[in-house]
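thought: fold this chain, then report.
action: predict
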Amino acid sequence: MSDKFRNVVCQPGDVVQDFKRQILELISLNQTTCGNLPDLSIPNLIPEVPDLNPSQKAIDFLADILALVSGINFEEMRMQIVNWLVEQLEPLSEDLSDNFIKSIKSCYACKINPKIPEWLFQIQPSSFTFDANGQPIIGTGTEGLGFNVELNKIDLTCIFAADPNTEIGKLFYDGDSSNDINAFLWEVIQENGNPLIWSDPENGKQILEVRYYENSPIAFTQNDGTVDYQNTEPRPRVFNFRVINQSYENKTLINVMVDYFNSQQPLFDVDKVIPNVIDLLYGTLTNKIELPDECLNRVVELEKSISDYLDEGVGSGTVDINFDDSFYTFNSKQLTNIKEIVKEKKSGVKKYKKCCSKDISTISFDTLATINDDIKNSSTLQQKISTYNKALDDLIKESVAKVNTLDKDSASGEFLSNFITSLQIALTKLVLSPKNLLMLNLFYFLVNSKPITEVSIKKILKEYECIIVEILSELLRKLIYDFLLPLIIKALKNLIICVITKKIKEKNINYLKSRLSLLPGFVNDKLEDLNELFGKSENIVDKARGFTDKINLNSLNNINLQSKKKGRFCD
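observation:
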């Protein structure tokens, strides 16, 4: 672990490295001494020191343990991925939606006065002229300035480069402009200054008026310290939004936020997960829309930044983490790696790293489009299982098509391993989409009395760090407890039985030796006792096997890594 990072568990990197090695060596030793384990198709070698890096990325480490214990069982791994995608993705999306709102409350909203500022309304409420019945007269009053946010602060993946009404757009957006705020914001950009109203697609409640300024002298982004709204530093390419008066007068900022996020449930479309994972690995989608180099660099930097957070243990829920300034910049080695990944994505290919003589692999856009359509058209549980099974089969088949026959198993294993480790990054990217960051930027401004001004991806993410920790915690919880640990426990069962058997036999042999040492020279009459003791040993082993069969994996789901924070305006 580098000097830029400290926590209460680890100091230098070799502590984590040694800890990993001790665990893997312990498993390997017991495998070596147990003669009743099944033969493994792949040698159980402990990774070399360079592979046992000081990263605290839990998913990668657990995957290493799984490979060490049981080798690479492709069919079982594929089935577990399908099970996770079918059964866990939708609950995960719902949990993230709920936790995202809670995180904004704890990180930002609970630190400010919940009253909606007058300048945030379409029309400032106190400026209305009222009739004899005390009702505001339509057409009177002073317009609110609203809140401005630069496009590049919320669009970290250049999603607006894709038209949601095209075939490629269907894989980027979660719907159309009536039910997906990302698609709605794309329409706002096309209007270039003309406002559009975002309403809840379920109940029709109007929430925000949104407009886009390509280059306007009133697109202020900062304030001069004399007021609490933005009145200086106009910027190009800015979204402006205002709260609808009739929906939120006498309401709070929390009401606006909750209605806004509830109007776009879930937080992301679970059907888009596979296309986004494949795009992360192969650049299939970004290659199709021919993103400019600047955009593609931002996308890869975002992916690398999320990976860096995972490397340093963010989301583990066990330690307090602090970074120094060096964490928020890429070093020369990382920049070189980013350039290489950008080059691969522009070509729509990925090189194998661990096998196959560094051959390249590709996944076509047509394959992803077909998978997306099939998933969309699957309604029943059985249909979804069948569709996801076929999707993974097609992806594996296409990914290994260019490698020689002898390497296909290794190539399949590398694809599945990359798919698993890329899930957490792809899901985090889906959460950090413009529609979610739009509202987040408002609360950041209200807390800090200034907008996010950073340009680099890492420094932008630094401002979102409180939220990112919560997102990664939830993702890790789901991936570890509902995916990897059940596989590992199942794989360890034979090893546990073997070790228990070995210990019992050693104990009984020592006991028998002590018994025999007390007997006269002839022991033939006592052989029956000896056989009886070995019979009891087998019974004990059977009981041990029964114990491991009864391990309750569902109890893992009850583990809660959530942290609770309160502010002075929250109960």
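thought: worth noting. The chain has 19 helices and eight strands.
final: tokens above.
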